Amino acid sequence: MTVPSAAECNLPMTNNEVNVDNALDRYLxxxxxxxxxxxxxxxxxxxxxxxxEAGVTDSQIEFDGAETRTRLDGNCGNLIxxxxxxxxxxxxxxxxxxxxxxxxxxxxxxxxxxEVHSSAPTGLGAxxxxxxxxxxxxxxERLKQGDENFPPAVVSFLVxxxxxxxxxxxxxxxxxxxxxxxxxxxxxxxEKLTIGAxxxxxxxxxxxxxxxxxxxxxxxxxxxxxxASRAIADLHARGWLGKVQQGDQAGTSNVGVFQGGEATNVIxxxxxxxxxxxxxxxxxxTRIVSEIRQAFERAAxxxxxxxxxxxxxxxxxxxxxxxxxxxxxxxSIAAASDAVRVVGREPFPEISDGGLDANxxxxxxxxxxxxGCGQRNIHTADERLVIADYLDACKIxxxxxxxxxxxxx
Length: 409
Ligand SMILES: [Zn+2]
Fold this sequence. Notes:
alpha+beta, Aminopeptidase, Alpha-Beta Plaits, 2 domains, 9-stranded mixed β-sheet, 11 helices, 25% strand, disordered N terminus, binds zinc ion
């Protein structure tokens, strides 16, 4: 692999300088390791190897067993690294997720010009190995300067982000401890500070009708397909599907899966559907879910056979993640803004329309700003990493747990 030297990358020399060759090498090494959600053990093992090389002792490294609490049985829990520092001042958390989406399996990262891409027909996996690389680099740089010279910090390398934020959701908060400022490194541009995110809920709906022979005695049946279709048409007509705007409340919803039926000559006895609802307001999200539920229940009651017998609905919903928003004057936002300015960029805040590990961290009392690391076209075979952006993310992470860590609490 070709690795550009510091001089070639044309980096300004600052106090929070990082070793460019090593930072990029760390990234390329961990990105080549397959590690879809639930299969992060090999990635974690390599991260631990880098940590030990940097002088982190075994007593500072811990796994939290989250893989036994997640919906999917994984082979690895969240990896938590404590940096006790001098024991004084604000305690900082850095986090990133170790898993990648399946399209990244087999990634062969290569440097080409000022970007990294996969030479295999796969995604690269910069989401989120670039976050892992940036944080690893920050730990290495901090230990080089002496851990005892800085306020305490803690790092969480999280699992199972891509399948519904399961690692963050099941993080053992007792092992992380209390933190004052938190920074989650994930996909996107370096300047973007994600300070809040939408909440999401998923529904499964089973509609049960009454079967009958469609040619011989259709009047004896009540079709589950008709019931579900009526419900969906009703929701669509009243503005509760797609982009939902009711008064000053907004959200989105979608019926994404509709399965059922086996034969044309049977009045369909059952269909199964899956739907979702999102909103920045938990109240609005709950209202959308309730409208969807009522529409299905109404439709099932209204579609009857010749004797007046109706259908029924089994409805369940599960909150994937609650929305959150940090206060404008939150110390995590102030520090993240300073860090981005230190590398010569202008930060801008954003509220995300997708869920982040930060949604669950917030529920656990960790109020994190999410920063990007220069990933482009994530979750596609054209995924790329902009090297200059990644190196800036390395510097930002380093600054946050060294110079920018502050010494007063
Ligand atoms: Zn990600």
